[in-house]
Design goal:
Length: 225
């Protein structure tokens, strides 16, 4: 798994990158938890998601947001981190011009950044938001959410309470043309202590079903003239 350094908006960014053997393979970008609370690209959930996509033939990248590890710059409360994520996607796409589609997976703070990236990049066709925090971060920009995806959280999460995540899910489920899948890991806290395998199993099942052409949203009803 090559270590890479590429240019970001605030200096160099450090990542781990695994190209697919297929020139036109989809791209997956994995975004880590909050940089000021110990979040890095080596977080266990981020690491496992990276391998999950890699094993399914994706060209895969995880990287450290600005100010973490060997990534230059300083924490920027989300705005700069979103620019980092966009630069990371640009960098991978420059190496894989034949790749037409992309997935983004984010955990905690990374889920918030990932959903913002989704709004900016029409080539992102699927997302995974793990333990998003709508109680802390504003998700109102998802109007409408452009792609189908998975939202997954633990029912013992005190950092992102279940009722807040449910509120976000219900709001997104009212939108036409996309399909939001919501999974809850019983007994899991925000860090999925002792539950990472269960979490990964749910993510793998979701990804496999999407890649098999399942979980397709119902077509919008045609208007009668």
């Amino acid at each position: 798994m090559p270590e890479v350094i590429f240019n970001g908006p605030a200096g160099r960014l450090e990542g781990r990158y695994q190209p697919s053997k297929e020139k036109s393979a989809p791209i997956a970008i994995i975004l880590h938890p909050h940089p000021q609370f110990g979040g890095t690209m080596n977080n266990q959930v981020v690491y496992q998601l990276f391998y999950m996509f890699q094993k399914r033939g994706f060209t895969t990248l995880r990287f450290n947001f600005r100010g973490i590890g060997r990534s230059q710059g300083e924490f920027d409360h989300g705005a700069g981190e979103l620019s980092d994520a966009a630069s990371a996607l640009d960098w991978v796409q420059s190496l894989h011009p034949d790749s037409k589609s992309c997935w983004v997976a984010g955990y905690s703070f990374g889920a918030w950044i990932g959903m913002q990236l989704l709004m900016r990049r029409p080539e992102i066709e699927g997302f995974m938001s793990i333990a998003p925090q709508p109680n802390i971060y504003d998700f109102s920009f998802l109007a409408p959410c452009p792609s189908s995806g998975l939202i997954i959280n633990g029912d013992a999460d005190k950092v992102a309470p279940e009722k807040d995540v449910n509120g976000l899910v219900e709001k997104l489920k009212t939108q036409k043309g996309i399909l939001i899948t919501h999974k809850v890991v019983s007994g899991a806290n925000h860090f999925f202590n002792g539950q990472v395998e269960t979490l990964l199993g749910e993510c793998e099942d979701y990804l496999d079903r999407r890649l098999n052409g399942e979980l397709v949203p119902e077509p919008a009803a045609k208007r009668i003239r």
